[in-house]
Amino acid sequence: MRILVVEDERKIATFIRKGLAESGFNPLVCGNGDDALHLASGERFDAVVLDVMLPGRDGLSVLRQLREQRNTVPVILLTARDGLSERVEGLNLGADDYLAKPFSMEELIARLRAVRRRLSGEGLSVQQYEDLTLNLITHEVSRAGRKIELTAREYALLEYLMRSPGRVLTRTQLCEQVWDYHFDPGTNVVDVCVQRLRRKVDDGHAVKLIQTVRGVGYTLKAGA
Amino acid sequence: MKRWPLRWQITLWSVLITALALVTFGAVVAFNLYSEQVELVDAQLATDARFAFTYRAERRDAGPADTGWAAALRRADVSLYGFALGRTAAPALGEAHPVQLAQFLAHWPPQRKRFSRRLEGRHLRFGVFGEGENTLVLAASLEAAEESVNDLLGAYLIALPAVLLVVGCGSWWIARRALVPITNITAAAASITADRLDQRLSVPATEDEIGRHIRVLNGMFDRLQRSFEQANRFTADAAHELRTPLTIMRGQIEDALRTGHFNPEQQRLLVDLLEENTGLQKISDNLLLLARFDTGRSPLERVPVELSALVEDAKEDAELLASSQHIRIAGRIAPGLRVSGDAVMLRRVALNLVDNAVKFNREGGEVSLDLQAEGGDVVLAVSNTGAGIPAERQGTLFQRFYRADSGRNRDTGGSGLGLSLCREIVTALGGRIDLSRSDGERTVFTVRLPRLVGEAGTPA
Questions:
Q1: pLDDT tens-digit profile of B43-73?
Q2: How far is A10 from chain B (nearest CA, A)?
Q3: Nearest chain A CA: its distance from B376 CA (Å)
Q4: Which residues pair with B329 in a beta bridge?
C-alpha cells in the first residue's frame, strides 16, 4: 500500500516513515505542499497523510487542489489538537479522516488500515480477530459464537485493541484513545478495565487473546 | 473614614464658604454703618458745643450758674446730658442731667476728646470741647445708631438661611451636572470587561477635562488590550511551538518501545517518559484551550449531546478508578437527558469531577453521580465523602493553577487547570458549575446546563 506522507518536520516525517514501513506500508515522504500536489497528481497513491501546517502551500490548499482535479485518493489530515475550524474545513473539503498532533503511530496505522478496508470493500461494520468478532454498528461482541456483554468503556477498549491486532498499545495510548483524559500517573484505571475485559473475553477459553506486555502495555494476540 | 459622595462634598463646601463670606461681609458693613452713625452723633455734639459757647459768650457776666444755654439746647431737642465750664476740678453740672458727671468721669478734664461709655444702662457718646479756659462735656445717646445697626443685622440674619439654601441647591445642581459625564464614564468603563476589551469610551468633541480624561482612559484600555492579547498570543504560541517537539518525542519513544530490545528497567523508563510526554501535551492543550476562551471566541462545538449516556460512562469510570479503595459508587442518572454542547469537552468535565471525587475521597467512602432535569435545566451533581474543601479556599477553587492543598505533590495533583477549565467549558455552554456543599461529611459539585428538548426520537 503506497502512502504519500506530507510533513515538513523532518523528525516527525522520519518516524512516520519508519513506523509505516515496519507495518508493511510503502511510504514516500515529501516536505512541502507544492511538491506534494505535484507528486499526488502524477502518481497513484493508496492514501495521503497530509499535515495541515506546511511551508508554502498549506495542507488544506493541497487537499482543495486535489479534489478540484477529481483526485479521490483517501486523505488523512494531521491537524492541531485544538483546530476545530481546520478540522471541520478539512472534512468539508473531502478529507477522509483527521488525526490531531501529537498522535501515536498505532493510531495512524489503524486509520490507514480502515482506509484500506474501505477501499477493498471489506466489511466495515464487523471486525474479526481469531474467533472474536466485534460489530462497529451494533456494538455487539461475541467469541466463538457466544455473545459477550460489555460496558461502554470495555467495548471502547476492545474496539481499539482490535483495530491494531498484534501491536503493543501502551497505557498512555489506551487512556488517550478510550478516555481522552489524562489521569494522574499511577492511576490504574486502564489496568482495571483491561482486567475486567479480559475476564469477559478470555475466561473459559484455552487461547487467550488479550496479552499483557510487561512494563509496556497490552496487545491483542492469540496466545496461551 | 468613609467619604461622602463628591456631589455632597461640593455642596457642603459651597454653603460653608458662602456663609463665611456673608458673615464677614455683614460684619464689615455693620461696623462701617455704626462708625458713620457715631460720626453723625459727634458732629451733632460739636454743633451743640458751638451753640453753648456762643450762648456763654453773649452772657459773659451771668456766671457759671447760668445754664440757660442748656435749656436752650434741650429745647432744640438735642440729647444733652451734662456740661462743665471753667477749670475747676469739680465742675458744676448743668441742670439738664442730674448725673454726677464728674464722678463718672474718673479724670478731669478727660484725656480723650470723643469716647463712648455705658452709663446707667444707656450707651452714650461723649464729646469734650474746650474754648479758652472753659471745658464743655456733652453726651448724646447712641441708641439710634445701635438700632440702625441692629436693624441691618436682623435683616441679614433673616436673609442668610434663604441665601444659603439657594447657594446649596445651586451648587448641588452644578455638581450633579458636572459629575454626569464622570458617572457616564464609570458606567461605560465598567462594561469594558476582559472579553470586551476592544470597546472604547466615546470621546466628546470638546477638549475639556472630561474629554482629556476619556482620552487618557482609552489610552489605558489600548495598553491593557495590547498586553492582554500579548499574553494570550504568547500562551497560544507557546502551546503551538510545543507541539512539534512533543510529537517528535512521542513518536521516537513509541518507536523505540516497539522496535528496540530493552531490559525491563529501561522499558519502564521509556513508558514513564511517554506518560510524562502526554501529561505535558495535556497541559499545553489546556493552556491553549484557556487562551482560546480568553479571546472570547468559544472553541466549542454546539451539537446535541446525550448527557445521560455520557454520565453513565463517567459512572463506570468512577467504578474503575475507585476499585482499589473500597469506595462505593451511587447515584441516579435520569435517562435521555440532552444538552447542546461539545461531547469531548463535556466528557472531560464529567471525568474531571469524577476523578477528583475519587481522588479526594476517604477509604471506604462514597462517590455519587446524580443527573436529573430541573426546570429547563439539566443538573449533574457529583459528590464525595472526603474531608471537604477548607472554607477559605472555596472561593479560589475555580482559579487557574489552583489546588486545594498547595502542598500536594504531583502524584495526586494534576496540572491544576482542571476545575478552571471545567468552569470555562460549562460557562461557554451557557451553564454554571458550583461547589454547592462542602463540609466534613460531603463535598458536592453541581453542573447546571440548559436542557435540550424536542426533536423526534428523544424520550423527554
A1: 988 888 887 778 777 776 655 555 666 666 6
A2: 9
A3: 28
A4: B367
Cα B285 from Cα B84, distance rounded (Å): 116
Give the three-class secondary structure for B328.
strand
- Write the residue in B278, B292, B359 that is nearest to A176 by C-beta: B278
Query: Which residue carries 456673608 as its cell?
Result: B22
Could you give the 3-state DSSP secondary structure of residue A49? strand
| Residue B207, min C-alpha distance to chain A (Å) | 46
Q: Is A203 on the interface with B (CB under 8 A)?
A: no
Answer yes or no: do A151 and B316 touch at CB < 8 A. Answer: yes
Question: B258, A19: Cβ pair inside 8 Å?
Answer: yes
* Separation in Å, CA of B282 to nearest CA in chain A: 7
Predicted structure pTM score = 0.64
CB contact under 8 A, A170 and B413: no
Q: Do B258 and A168 touch (CB under 8 A)?
A: yes
Residue in A closest to B282 by C-alpha: A182
Of A22, A25, A69, the closest CA to residue A48 belongs to: A25
Domain ranges (residues) in chain A: 2-120, 126-223
CA–CA dist A212, A222 (Å, integer): 12
Low-confidence ranges of chain A (pLDDT < 70): 81-83, 121-124, 185
Instruction: State the residue for C-alpha cell 480723650.
Output: B112
Cα separation of B146 and B151, whole Å? 8
Fold held by A2-120 = Rossmann fold (3.40.50)
Domains (ranges, CATH) in chain B?
A: 6-148 (3.30.450), 209-294 (1.10.287.130), 303-452 (3.30.565.10)
CB contact under 8 A, A103 and B254: no
Nearest CA to B317 out of B281, B357, B277 is that of B357
Rounded (10°) angle between helices B143-191 and B209-259: 30
Class of domain A126-223: mainly alpha
Identify the pLDDT of residue B209.
81
Report CB contact under 8 Å: A15, B278. Answer: no
Determine contact: A61 vs chain B, CB below 8 A: no
| Most distant pair of Cα atoms in chain B: their distance | 159
For B286, the grid coordinates are 489546556
Q: Which amino acid is at B83?
A: F
Identify the three-state secondary structure at position A170.
Answer: strand
Q: How far is A70 from chain B (nearest CA, A)?
A: 30
Partner residue opposite A172 with nearest CB, options B258, B278, B288: B278
Residue B370 in grid coordinates: 446524580
What is the Cβ-side half-sphere exposure of residue B392, based on CA atoms within 13 angstroms?
1
**Measured between CB atoms, does A26 come within 8 Å of chain B?**
no
Closest to B445 measured CA to CA, from B391, B386, B380: B380
Q: Is the pLDDT of residue B205 over 80?
A: no
Collapsed DSSP state (helix, strand, coil) of residue A156:
helix
